[in-house]
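Ticket 4471: requesting a sanity check on a complex prediction with copper (II) ion. Repro inputs:
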Amino acid sequence: MSPNAWPSHPRPRTLARLAVALLVTFTPMLAAHDFRLGPLRIDHPYATPTPPGATNGAAYLRGIRNTGAEPDRLIGASTPVARAVEIHRSAVDADNVMRMRRVDAIELPPNVEVRLRHGGEYHLMLIDVKQPLKNGDRFPMTLRFERAGEREVMVWVQPPRDAAGASPHKH
Ligand SMILES: [Cu+2]
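Returned structure tokens:
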């Protein structure tokens, strides 16, 4: 396929980048994976599969541990598989319904592990996913921290371990 055959749409470049990421990370198959950025330990980024036609997905982290002496904050994220990524916090509202609200940041105090797990307080909402996320997929996501800067991590798509946390949520 000649370069001229590519449409002007950015999708082919995104797919090529994904393909490279897949080649890099499929060996070996590990039960978990983690990333480091300065004093931050980012443990097992994952996302739940999305049903066909779903516009939004959700990504999680088993945890982020700040091993440094200074506080940091997770202030944003982006990924080629979605138009935008928002930090959402779950809370029970006055009607006793669990709702998600967008927040600006997640505080990462020193010597604390903050969890962003399925069914927990925080998740990363993937707004307008470009294709369904399927079990076994991998995709890159860049996390942005106020102090430590940026780190690209690989997100594993897998079914939630705790089916009880799989109830649909409202925004
Ligand atoms: Cu949400």
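Notes from triage: The chain has a mean pLDDT of 84. Leaving this open until the requester confirms.
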